[in-house]
Amino acid sequence: MKFPGDVSGFSPSAVGALLVTFGVACLAGVSITGALLDRVPHHTLNTAVATQAVGMLGLSAAGTDPVAAVVFPVLMGGALGPVFMATQNEMLRSAPGRTDLALAANSGAYNAGIAAGAALGALALPLAGLPGTFLMGGLLTTGACVLLLGERLLPAAKATRAAKALPNQ
């Protein structure tokens, strides 16, 4: 992980500790998400995506500050697992009769997103540097958050949610 060493100025041993902190934040995020996912699935997904955006944008803007270089990756780590969990939950809820296909589609889309992000990052890195790459990722994630919030406002989406909320008769 070059950002903590090259941009934030952490020593190699401190970078190792930061990666452990990132992993612990991911585990904490998964634990919290597990408790919330059945009660507020849409809010859980929106919150996780927004948290990722804040982490990336914050790291881009203030990554040279040692405190910011710890806080913002912790936010990103805390949202990493929850995004996958929340999208997987949404897929299972939208395809109750074909959960095998829903899980495969979610996994494929998630991995395609990782590959696309890596490809875009590789293109942006020589042009914008490490902070600029995080800025681009943060802006794309912010766009995803806007789409998620916009979906909640669409009339067809409201009607579908209302129909799902009705008890089976």
Explain this structure.
The structure is a single chain. The chain has helices spanning 2-7, 12-36, 41-62, 68-94, 99-153, 155-165. It has 169 residues and is mainly alpha-helical. Helix 3 packs antiparallel against helix 4 (68-94).
Strand content: under 5%
What structural class is derived from the secondary structure elements? mainly alpha
Order of helices and strands: HHHHHH
Poorly predicted spans: none
Q: Specify the helix fraction band.
A: over 70%
Largest sheet: none
How far from one another are the termini? 54 Å
Radius of gyration based on Cα positions = 18 Å
Give me the number of helical elements. 6
**Large-scale geometry:** elongated
Number of strands: 0
Overall mean confidence score, pLDDT: 87
Q: Strands, helices and their partners?
A:
Elements: H1 2-7, H2 12-36, H3 41-62, H4 68-94, H5 99-153, H6 155-165
Helix pairs in contact: 2-4, 3-4, 3-5, 4-5
What are the key terms here?
mainly alpha; elongated
Quick overview of this protein structure:
This protein is an all-alpha fold and 169 residues long. It contains six helices and no strands.
